[in-house]
Amino acid sequence: MLRGGGTGLADGERVEILLGITTPAEQEVADALGLNVGDLVAVRRRRYVDTAGVSAVSSTWIAGALARELPEFTRAEPLPTMTFGLIEERTGRRATRRRDAVSVRAVPTEVASLLGVQAGREVLVVTNRYWDQHGEPTEYAVDYHAPGRELMSEYDLD
Q: What is the pLDDT of residue 1?
């Protein structure tokens, strides 16, 4: 969307930056980023809000070594080019592959109040993994979508 001139936000949507820290990687994040459990990663958590309320809570992780090159990743301010754009700008590592997985999961305690639901409630979850032009993982994201929301994609089929 950004490469096509968009903002990364839907019409009428705004983003709140909630968290930006460095922490040891848990199993899911380590596996997604090709790291070991306990290796340092940086995580950035955001809440997306539109006229109907909270639409999603999104967390993105990058390797700690990469985060040292991107100090604004952990700041409470929007990234004008989103994570993959910032990575490309600073390191030359261009996101060339993305895998999205859609599932239904229980909302963890640390996300529940941000999403406005009880912990354990099942909601739609989308995970995104990105790789650079060398096949190396660059970022991993998990988005918890609010109940009653739909996920929509539209593509030109040429």
A: 37
Work out the average pLDDT over 49-65. 95
- The tokens describing 63, both together, are 């390797």
| pTM greater than 0.70 | yes
Distance CA 20, CA 43 (A): 6
Q: Of 130, 117, 143, which Cα lies nearest the Cα of 88? A: 130
d(CA 134, CA 124): 31
Local structure of 58: helix, strand or coil: strand
Burial tier of 149 (Cβ tally within 10 Å: 0-12, 13-18, 19+): middle
Tokens 């490309």: give the residue. Answer: 88
**Does 97 have pLDDT greater than 70?**
yes
